[in-house]
Amino acid sequence: MKETQPKKAKLFNLKRLPMDMARIAFSPLPLLFRVRCMTPDGQKYKGKIWNGGIIAANHSAFTDILVLYSAFWYRRLFIIVADVVMKDKLREVLITGCGGIQINRDIADLQAIRRSVEVLKEGQLLAVFPQGHIAGQGAVDSVKHGTALMAVQ
Questions:
Q1: Three-state SS at 30
Q2: Could you tell me if 48 and 74 are in contact, meaning their C-beta atoms sit under 8 angstroms apart?
Q3: What is the pTM of this model?
Q4: Could you report the per-residue pLDDT of 7-41, keeping only the tens digit for each?
Q5: What is the dihedral sign for C-alpha 82, 85, 86, 91?
Q6: Beta-sheet strands, E only, within the chain
Q7: pLDDT tens-digit readout, 88-121
Q8: Other CB atoms closer than 10 Å to residue 119's CB: what's the count?
Q9: Positive or negative CA dihedral for 69, 71, 73, 76?
Q10: Is-contact 147 56, C-beta < 8 A?
Q11: Residues whose CB is less than 8 angstroms from the CB of residue 65 and which lie 6 or more positions away in sequence, other chains included
């Protein structure tokens, strides 16, 4: 069985202009947030991620998105966003333009999973909060299974 390599992300893409503008705006964030990236075995990861992948992060505050943007400022970062966050049309356009993928947490949202798999196949980074909601600092609630489903696909 032949393994397929993910596509290389284009350096400039007009459709991604709002996302790139947000990356420029968020570029000073590493000065405000001290971010530690860890490997699965608990070691500190000092390199940069240049291929596509899933970033599974704890969600302890609304500012976690800013922390992720500060950690991966050098890449386009797509983030799974709950539909309740995109209440009005303006917020939906802004969040979607900056790489947000809307998901309905109450059902198995296959459209959002398909879109997420497309993003991964394009060689992009996808941030997921597996708990599905904001949990307290250090708390680990039950996680949703969509992250594993996207990783397998």
A1: helix
A2: yes
A3: 0.70
A4: 555 666 777 788 888 778 877 877 777 777 777 78
A5: negative
A6: 53-56, 77-82, 100-103, 125-128
A7: 888 888 888 888 898 887 787 888 888 988 988 8
A8: 22
A9: negative
A10: yes
A11: 79, 127
